[in-house]
């Protein structure tokens, strides 16, 4: 019985006592629905820079929005000097492709201290996550007068398994 209790204890750093647990973040229906709301706002504004406050998110959606970064679907906006603009986000090229059903991405990513350490081998597309319910239709999206940037807050090398990356927070 004592072995069972010991196995449930989180691993801790011997020096400082901080948790060394890897946190997994799954791309779920709630996150994808928030991504769809975000893309709809980008289309309505005809600008790929949105303040998260404009989305009308509930508390759960608001608190989990940043997890879309772990999957490189959204990124924080920066001004011309490279300084982050608080609360402003953009839809990445990868995020747009995912919304349109053109790509699949890892279902889960594992983070430790804001660094992506692992990704699942299982991949999902928007159809897999929403399971055919309420799939959005993006009519002639490429005709809008804005651009989906091919950037990310995380190192793209991570996705081919060649490196680990620290997120820009």
Indicate the proportion of strand residues: 15-25%
Order of helices and strands: HEHEHEEHEEEEHE
| Largest sheet descriptor | 4 strands, antiparallel
The rounded Rg comes to 18 Å
Number of helices: 5
Please give a structural write-up.
It contains 5 helices and 9 strands, in the order αβαβαββαββββαβ. With about 170 residues, the chain is an alpha+beta fold. The chain has one domain. The chain is globular, with a radius of gyration of 18 Å. The model is unreliable at about 1-5, about 140-145 and about 155-169 (pLDDT under 50).
Task: Please outline what is shown here.
The chain is of the alpha+beta class.
Summary tags:
globular, single chain, 5 helices, disordered N terminus, alpha+beta, 169 residues, 3-stranded antiparallel sheet, 4-stranded antiparallel sheet
């Amino acid at each position: 019985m004592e072995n069972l209790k010991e196995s449930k204890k989180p691993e801790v750093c011997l020096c400082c006592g901080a948790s060394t647990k890897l946190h997994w973040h799954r791309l779920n229906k709630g996150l994808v629905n928030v991504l769809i709301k975000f893309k709809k706002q980008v289309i309505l504004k005809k600008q790929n820079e949105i303040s998260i406050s404009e989305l009308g998110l509930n508390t759960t959606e608001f608190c989990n929005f940043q997890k879309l970064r772990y999957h490189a679907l959204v990124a924080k906006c920066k001004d011309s000097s490279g300084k982050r603009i608080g609360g402003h986000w953009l839809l990445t090229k990868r995020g747009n492709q995912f919304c349109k059903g053109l790509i699949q991405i890892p279902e889960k990513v594992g983070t430790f201290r804001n660094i992506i350490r692992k990704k699942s081998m299982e991949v999902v597309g928007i159809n897999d996550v929403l399971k055919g319910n309420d799939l959005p239709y993006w009519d002639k999206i490429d005709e809008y007068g804005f651009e989906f940037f091919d950037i990310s807050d995380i190192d793209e090398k991570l996705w081919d398994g060649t490196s680990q990356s620290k997120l820009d927070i």
